[in-house]
Amino acid sequence: MQGNLTALLITSAIVLVVIAIGFIAGRDKSSRSSVEEWAVGGRRFGSLLVWLLVGADLYTAYTFLGLTSTAYQGGSIAFFAIPYSVLAFLISYFFLPKLWTVAKKHKLTTLADYARERFSSKFLSSLIAIVGVLMLIPYIDLQLSGIQDTLRVAGTGYINVKAVVILSFFLVALYTFFSGIKGPTYTAIIKDILVWAIMLFMVVSLPIMHFGSWGNMIDNVAKDAPQLLTIPTQGPKGIPWFITASFVSALALFMWAHAATGVFTAKSADSLRKNAIFLPLYNIVLILVIFLGFIAYQVLPQDTTDPRLALLTLIQYSYGGIGQGLAYATIALASLIPCSIMAIGASNLFANNIFRDLINPNVQGKTLTMVTRSMVFVVIGLALLFGLLFPQALVSLQLLGVSGMVQIFPAIVISLFWRNQSKESTIAGLVVGLVVTFTVHATGNSFGLYEGFWGLLSNLLVVVILNPIFAAKTKAATNGVKETLFSKGNPQTELKKNA
């Protein structure tokens, strides 16, 4: 596959400009003065910035490339992404403001920080941090995969793709180390503008170019490939899988370290409530992007098209150099910017909840800040190494990551509302949930349901069964976070004060 030099130059120019903006965003030394400043921007971001930041780290290149690939191969099963994200935002409306209030009052920057203070347990905090870091590295790898695929299509014949990918991610690690969360926040503005402009342009123009109109395109799909328009009733990914995948993915969405990082940057609880209302607007783009997979199925030769590259190949087939360059730049930025936010989340977990809680409890603030920032290079380096060595394992590991991350939902969300939830039952539930999830994944026996559903069900059962054993002890214990959550008049008073 020969690349397009014009497209490559436009893509490179846009990406380099955005990376430069990432460095400029951190020119103020205050952005790296503490972990709270570097990782969550001092909790000063308003509703619009939080909307752009959370949108940037949730709607990645993998979202666009993965959905079109899934639609190309499996048809309407790709639509599971729509109900799961809407359900996630609905649920988040009720718990994120409460979580944010606790995090601000007690200066918490990770979900593992919250678990440590809520349950007075460094062990639980470190366990959540280890799960979070291990599950996030394959997700970062997928961003690597996204830019690597983009460069393969745009630059083959002109550049060494692997060398440019490594250079790109090193530059992202460097500006993340330098600027902290401010870098990806301000570059996310450009990325999101491009996503809305370019993706909407593509979903309007491609059906007209190849079929004359959207109506003709749908008619062609219904006539020539009706299987794309229905969810299978049999097989491993039928309606039960669709329902449980949507449910589990919704619960897991804000358990990811990068999503929590975006949430904790907000300056008020009200910003998060507004985000829960307006973030589903991104689904307009997602719904239409899925149809691009249907277009690729009809337009591209199926015997020579790699499903993984369906969207990129469709772009190359349909547009000239300028159109290709703008589209490739959008996908490249949708790889690099989420990678930066994910690296911040993973680094923060490692430094605060593994290094500080387990290795060096007496670490000073400046040292902890430098360790947190430096871990960006380790996290991205590991992701690069793993991605280059095991590229075929990435998608399955990321899907397993969703099933793994949802296991911390009881420890984080349920504990916001259940005062007498014990740390012992929570730890046992988390461990059992992870074991069941990995067992189901290893054996392949999910009985037509999403594998994380079995883990979460086991997790909740263990918590409910064991909790009465420790209820008396838990009821007598208290700490600052419990007081904030459950003392009379809180957290409602705090929420109103901080809104």
Overview features:
mainly alpha, single chain, 499 residues
Summary, kept brief:
The chain has 499 residues and is mainly α.
Structural features, described:
The protein is 76% helix and 0% strand. The protein has helices at 5-25, 35-40, 47-58, 61-74, 81-105, 111-119, 122-155, 161-179, 182-211, 214-224, 239-252, 257-264, 269-278, 282-299, 310-318, 321-359, 365-389, 394-405, 409-412, 423-443, 451-476, 480-486, 492-498. It is globular. The model has no long low-confidence stretch (mean pLDDT 88).
Would you tell me the overall average pLDDT?
88
> Number of helical segments?
23
Report the helical percentage: over 70%
Unreliable spans: none
Shape verdict:
globular
Number of strands: 0
Question: What class do helices, strands and sheet pairing give?
Answer: mainly alpha
Give the SSE layout.
Elements: H1 5-25, H2 35-40, H3 47-58, H4 61-74, H5 81-105, H6 111-119, H7 122-155, H8 161-179, H9 182-211, H10 214-224, H11 239-252, H12 257-264, H13 269-278, H14 282-299, H15 310-318, H16 321-359, H17 365-389, H18 394-405, H19 409-412, H20 423-443, H21 451-476, H22 480-486, H23 492-498
Helix pairs in contact: 1-8, 1-9, 1-16, 3-9, 3-12, 3-13, 4-14, 4-16, 5-11, 5-13, 6-7, 7-8, 7-16, 7-17, 7-18, 8-16, 8-17, 9-10, 9-14, 9-16, 11-21, 12-16, 14-15, 16-17, 18-21, 20-21
